[in-house]
Every structure is written in C-alpha cells, then in structure tokens.
Specification:
alpha/beta; 4-stranded parallel beta sheet
Length: 203
Amino acid sequence: MEKGSIFPLFYHPPIAYFNHLIKNPGTILIEKHEHFPKQTYRNRTSIHSPNGKLDLIVPISRGSKFHTSVKDVKISYEFKWQRMHLMSLQTSYRSSAYFEFYEDELMPFYEKKWDFLFDYNEEILIFFIKALKLQFNYSFTEEYQKEYAGFQDFRLAIHPKKDQQLNVTPYFQVFEERNGFLNNLSILDLLFNQGPQSKNYLL
C-alpha cells in the first residue's frame, strides 16, 4: 500500500507545516479539490510584529463561497493588500539578520497579481522549498476524497485555532524581548531570523 501525506496549500505556511513535511517521508499529495474552508492558513499567515502576533489575510473574491473548490478561489484586489502585507513584513523584519537576503525573491509576490489563490500559494511553496533546500517532490489530488488509505492527513490538522506541539528549540526573534517568544509563526519568521540554519530547526 502506498504511504505518504496529504497537505493543503497555505499562504506563507506556519513552521508546523514544514516540520510535518520534512518528518513524514513518502508520497506528498497536495489537495486541489477540497471545498475552500474559511479562517484557515490557506489565505492567512501570522508574523511577529513590534506589537506582537499579527495576522495577514489575503482577501478572496466575494464569489468564492464555502462550496467553491480551492483551486477555483480567486484573489480580490479591491484594496491594496499586497502593499499592506509588504509594509508589515518590512516593519517587522527589516532589522532581522536575513531579511535583505530573501527580500528580492519575495518582492514578486507583492508586485505581480495572481488570479487564483491556489496558484499563488503554490509559487510561495516552491520559493520555500528552494530557500530551505528541501529535497522532495509533490503531486496533486485528482479528485476530493474524505480519506486516503495509508496517507497521513494534514488538511485540517494544521489550523490557526489548533495548538501545534512543536519540538523546535526557541530561536531568536526580533521583538522577543518585548513580546516574548511566539511559537509556530509563518516560516518567514524562522527564515528571516535564522537564514540558512532554518532547516536545522525543522529537523
């Protein structure tokens, strides 16, 4: 029986996402046909701002209701959320050790417009696979199935309202002295603060 894991696509996924990706060998499936669930990491991420945890949300078009397939959810550009997200990242991480190292590669995500959230998130995943020097391939589901025999299912397991028990040593965060250490933020937080050492924290 084939073994592996099934994951959703997230917007700048939390550290737990990559922790599970690395520690669950086998076939990696990306869910492409689920109904889009709201209030998840599919269109939001959490960063460490000067005032503590800050959620950044990618707005979706009004036609993208609960029963819309995730691959068909469109991004809304009714307001300049890309500019707001970029400014938030710059305010939060400009003084971090590795922000400038990755800044140029991240800029297209805030300059170019993607029609579909799924395509946007896949490009983001590709960026992180390269930045973290991860060695794995993935494929997409061909239809929605509630269960996949032999596969560990992370489609609902990694959620903003679920506490993720991570065996990750606390690392330096820019505003830790002010706000304390914040656990399981976007992988961007780890990358900006630890750079090439980020992969070691995930292993």
